[in-house]
TrEMBL record:
The chain crosses the membrane at residues 9-27, 90-109, 116-132, 170-196, 202-223, 260-283, 295-315, 327-344, 356-374. Keywords: Membrane, Transmembrane, Transmembrane helix. It comes from Dyadobacter koreensis. The keyword Transmembrane applies. This is EpsG family protein.
Length: 558
């Protein structure tokens, strides 16, 4: 017989396996390069160096529609200890925020079950590349992940069982709002829950806090240019569709081409099940004389995560309908699915049904986890390659070819408190150039390029967009760490990240993709030159290799 202690240790180990595995994944893929909104962290550091007395103000001021206190604080702390900003360090420490979120889910689970086994699907689902975009983008790991985690912690301390420590919920509620704007929804939900519990004193104190804090929080608040809304006549339907789609967006892992339609169906199912169980409980309670309706921790936390989704649907209502399925929001997709599982598990009263539901959900989460590792492998690789090549482009030429598309690139002094990592030594670049000078003929491959003034893939770009396709490439071309390099007549070298073909997750899973035979690239033409030689360059066993694919190519729009 296996002892209870041994069984518990084994189950804890199983729970930690996805945590450790995904932690290694984050460690291996974290790159010390700013990405998109990460420039806000450098802006904060520059401001603090110029205005040391304005430290607190710089930490709490708006960024778009949010106050990103913890993101900025993490950047300041990293800079203080290392003397410079390091985005890789921030990403790695940001993984602790995902562990906090997992712990908050575990506390909810333990409020109605004391074993470990039935929590396993949560660990498998949450610690997977489903949430890679949030966790590999340094600023979001300290925003969206923390916002959900702090909100759930706040509600955890409002249980009747925690009545002696209920006031701890207030700092957690504040923390949620200072991580991301959707954290603000925890305040009315927490107050509502206190009122439902008929806790008059706590309701009064929390209500007064809510009024004062919301007044202070929204002092000088303004909607940013990122927020725009549809016409009033369409507003309700657009928000409702966005809310339903994001509620079921976990199915986006299965399909990108049909993701929106599938998300609407899945979201409608999740919401209908939630309404059914809630109505069923209310009906049973109302039919019992002297019994009052109560909302437990699992139910209020599920409601809270749904409120986060509703706030995102409101904020994105003016965008394209399918933008609600943006990969950066999949931390909410995973959280909704986790809370849906905990909610159903909490409502099932028969052991057979519990076991059947657990096994079904366990199989589903294992498949989603494995699929995510397969599906997002290329996306993570391309994302990192874009950061890596721009770590060369900006220090050498003062431009990003894969960054800050709608705005001009910052001046060099903007990066005074950050050092670009070196991935390409000068000797490597020189070796590539020498090899190309010796090549008289280009490789036999199909090369296509076009330059367009407007592209839906780069909305708002200030520059024309160059698209390149390479096919029928020789087998010698490697599948990883290969770059498209442009050489102008002055031998200036610009590096571009290439993308493998999108073969679909089925082909990727079974190894049927054609990565080596087809590559593509797209980037804004910020370079001033007219004619370029184009080559594929890589390093194998520390030996640089380059193959010429085209000569005297112009990227001027027609």
């Amino acid at each position: 017989m296996i002892s209870l202690y041994t069984r518990s240790v084994a189950l804890i180990f199983l729970l930690l396996v996805p945590v450790i595995t995904f932690g290694i994944y984050v460690w291996e893929n974290a790159v010390n390069m700013p990405y998109a909104d990460d420039e806000a962290l450098l802006f904060t550091l520059n401001y603090i160096y110029e205005h040391p007395e304005g430290l607190l103000r710089s930490l709490i001021q708006q960024h778009n529609d949010h106050r990103i206190f913890f993101s900025r604080l993490a950047g300041v702390v990293i800079n203080f200890f290392s003397g410079t900003m390091n985005f890789r360090t921030m990403i790695i420490f940001g993984y602790l925020n995902l562990i906090l979120l997992g712990h908050s889910f575990f506390l909810i689970y333990r409020s109605f079950r004391k074993d470990y086994l039935f929590f396993l699907p949560v660990s498998i689902l949450l610690f997977s590349p489903i949430v890679y975009c949030t966790q590999l983008w340094s600023i979001t790991a300290f925003e969206q992940t923390l916002s959900i985690a702090f909100s759930l912690y706040s509600l955890y301390f409002l249980q009747l069982e925690k009545i002696k420590m209920w006031y701890v919920s207030i700092p957690f509620a504040i923390a949620a709002t200072m991580a991301n704007l959707d954290g603000m929804s925890v305040i009315p939900i927490a107050l509502f829950w206190l009122i439902i519990q008929k806790r008059k004193k706590e309701s009064l104190i929390f209500g007064l806090f809510s009024i004062v804090y919301c007044y202070v929080f929204f002092l000088g608040f303004r909607f940013s240019s990122a927020s725009h809304f549809p016409p009033v006549s369409q507003f309700l339907s657009v928000v409702l569709k966005g809310f339903v789609a994001l509620s079921g967006s976990i199915v986006k892992v299965l399909s990108d081409s049909h993701g929106y339609q599938m998300a609407l169906i899945a979201g409608a199912f999740i919401l209908l099940v939630y309404i059914f169980f809630t109505a069923l409980k209310f009906y049973k309670v109302s039919g019992r004389q002297g019994t009052k309706y109560q909302i437990n921790l699992t139910e209020i936390c599920f409601f809270k995560v749904l409120a986060c989704v509703l706030m995102i649907a409101l904020g994105r209502s003016g965008d394209d309908a399918e933008s609600i399925l943006s990969i950066r929001f999949q931390i909410y997709s995973a959280s909704i699915f986790v809370m849906f599982y905990l909610f159903i598990l909490n409502n099932l009263k028969q052991i057979k049904l519990e076991k059947l539901f657990f096994l079904s959900f366990l199989i589903a989460t294992i498949m989603l986890n494995l699929l995510a590792y397969t599906k997002y492998k290329n996306a993570v690789r391309v994302h990192n390659d874009e950061l890596i090549v721009d770590s060369y482009n900006y220090p050498v030429h003062g431009i990003f070819l894969h960054q800050y598309i709608p705005t001009p690139d910052p001046e060099a002094d903007f990066y005074d408190h950050y050092r670009f990592p070196v991935f390409f030594e000068k000797a490597m670049i020189s070796n590539w150039i020498q090899q190309l000078q010796m090549q008289k003929e280009q490789i036999k491959a199909s090369f296509k390029s076009e330059t367009v003034k407007i592209s839906p893939d780069f909305p708002g770009s200030l520059y024309p967009i160059v698209r390149i396709e390479l096919s029928n490439l020789p087998a010698v071309i490697p599948r990883r760490e290969i770059y498209l390099v442009l050489f102008d007549k002055n031998k200036k070298t610009f590096m571009v990240a290439v993308k493998p073909p999108n073969s679909g997750w089925f082909n990727l899973f079974f190894g049927k993709n054609r990565q080596g035979s087809f590559l593509s690239a797209a980037f804004p033409k910020k370079m001033a030159g007219d004619l370029y030689d184009v080559a594929l360059c890589w390093t194998s066993d520390n030996i640089p290799h380059s193959l010429l694919v085209a000569r005297n190519i112009t990227f001027n729009p027609k």
